[in-house]
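Subject: design request, 104 residues
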């Protein structure tokens, strides 16, 4: 079982990527794994959580908006973004500021 991402005390930012996949892998699995590894190396990256059923939801956590912008402009990430129509029938990206968190 995966654990929730360990994040610092708020505030920080969350990028929520919600998607519905197309049929077939079309190279998605390998690229998705590479993107997670690459994101983890980016300054300001705090963690990631992902779940996929009928709808996929991936939440990545970032220290600030500048870190999110830098990730969006990463060359390998840009190349993966160009393949979105190969992998997704629909998707939405939401950027949120996390004001508080709690749990056990």
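Subject: RE: design request

Done. Sequence follows.
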């Amino acid at each position: 079982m995966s654990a929730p991402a360990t994040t610092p005390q708020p505030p920080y930012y969350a990028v929520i990527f919600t998607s519905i996949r197309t049929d077939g892998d079309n190279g998605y699995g390998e690229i998705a794994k590479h993107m997670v590894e690459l994101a983890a190396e980016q300054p300001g990256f705090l963690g990631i959580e992902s779940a996929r059923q009928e709808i996929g939801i991936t939440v990545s956590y970032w220290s600030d908006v500048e870190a999110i912008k830098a990730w969006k402009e990463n060359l390998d990430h840009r190349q993966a973004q160009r393949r979105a129509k190969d992998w997704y029938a629909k998707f939405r990206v939401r950027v949120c500021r996390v004001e508080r968190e709690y749990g056990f």
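The chain has one domain: 12-57+67-98.
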